[in-house]
Inverse folding.
């Protein structure tokens, strides 16, 4: 079987001469590497054909060292290449027009993980809007979606737009950054030229065969393996509750717990019956070293997926939250603002994209109602995304 080849590697080996003479900016992060771990900044800076003039970085910073939300990095000068590094997770998430002075083309090379609330795709969306205004072309060096082409979740409503969701896509969208960029351009009627250098040899239907390139380097500090990526569409919802999602442990987004949970009271029978959920729930106790419940014993579960292609983590975690709410109402709570630079909107509604999910959790409705609602939303998005797909599904 042929190895998967990133857009970066195809650009560097075969396409760089097509952009001769261009002054470029690069949007990247630590996972922007080729198969031999050469970083995109070093590769592009080495070229005679084009001229690297600026670097943009998303959340977690140029070195990927910043934990959690709303931990900012300032702008600085690259120590070797003496060009500006603009943080798009600082006093602004949107690049200014001045940052594009003298730039002909923005090159984007980011490893995404296929979830709407993972902020890198929203940074790309903001860049597209500014590029449209200042007349800068965009070249996407595409990378695979490590959790494949499956769709799960409801479509984001306009009233819940934020930095964790800018456009009407579901939680698990099954698209690459290149595909999403084309979708974002059309939905905003942007006048921007976008070219996508596609991933080579991506076996999207078999995650186990094609995930190797995805996690050469963690795309963010708490995203270090395929299990975490496949669980993240659901597990990220815990950020908007007082339930630990495992930050401050070696297993972020793989474990669930709080000091007040009695694991024996969580009934998994309905979720297992209705989703064939392809996951094991193992009772554990853990003690976070930072973040929620720091230095306090938490009781809960580790989630062990055994079939990543079809795992419905969004449904699973919503169901678990409902079970915890039902059995521990006096201790459970939803998070209050601020969250990701939103100081008034409900964080849980920002993450889920509408009010239906939260209402279902606190209601007496059963899983059949939730599943029926989500199936309809997923079918709608399946049609919406078809014109933008660049790869087989």
């Amino acid at each position: 079987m042929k190895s998967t080849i990133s857009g970066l590697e195809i650009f560097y080996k075969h396409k760089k001469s097509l952009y001769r003479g261009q002054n470029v900016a690069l949007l990247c992060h630590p996972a922007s590497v080729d198969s031999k771990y050469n970083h995109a900044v070093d590769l592009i800076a080495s070229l005679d054909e084009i001229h690297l003039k600026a670097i943009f970085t998303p959340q977690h910073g140029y070195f990927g060292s910043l934990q959690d939300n709303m931990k900012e990095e300032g702008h600085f000068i690259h120590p070797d290449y003496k060009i500006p590094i603009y943080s798009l997770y600082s006093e602004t998430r949107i690049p200014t027009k001045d940052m594009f002075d003298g730039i002909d083309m923005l090159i984007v090379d980011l490893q995404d993980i296929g979830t709407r609330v993972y902020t890198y795709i929203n940074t790309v969306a903001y860049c597209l809007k500014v590029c449209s205004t200042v007349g800068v072309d965009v070249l996407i060096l595409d990378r695979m979606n490590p959790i494949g082409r499956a769709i799960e979740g409801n479509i984001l409503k306009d009233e819940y737009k934020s930095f964790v969701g800018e456009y009407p896509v579901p939680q698990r969208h099954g698209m690459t950054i290149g595909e999403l960029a084309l979708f974002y351009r059309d939905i905003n009627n942007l006048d921007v030229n976008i070219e996508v250098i596609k991933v080579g040899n991506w076996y999207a239907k078999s995650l186990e065969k094609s995930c190797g390139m995805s996690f050469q380097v963690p795309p963010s500090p708490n995203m270090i393996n395929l299990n975490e990526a496949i669980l993240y569409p659901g597990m990220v919802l815990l950020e908007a509750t007082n339930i630990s999602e495992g930050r401050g442990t070696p297993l972020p987004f793989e474990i669930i717990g709080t000091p007040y949970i009695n694991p024996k009271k969580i009934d998994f029978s309905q979720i297992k019956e209705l989703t064939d959920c392809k996951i094991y729930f193992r009772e554990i106790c853990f003690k976070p070293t930072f973040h929620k419940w720091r230095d306090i014993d938490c009781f809960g579960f580790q989630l062990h997926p055994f079939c990543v292609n079809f795992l419905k983590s969004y449904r699973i975690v919503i169901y678990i939250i409902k079970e915890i709410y039902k059995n521990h109402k006096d201790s459970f709570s939803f998070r209050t603002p601020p969250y990701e630079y939103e100081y008034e909107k409900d964080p849980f509604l920002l993450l889920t994209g509408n009010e239906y999910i939260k209402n279902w959790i606190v209601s007496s409705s059963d899983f059949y109602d939730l599943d029926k609602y989500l199936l309809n939303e997923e079918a709608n998005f399946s049609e919406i995304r078809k014109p933008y797909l660049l790869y087989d599904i």
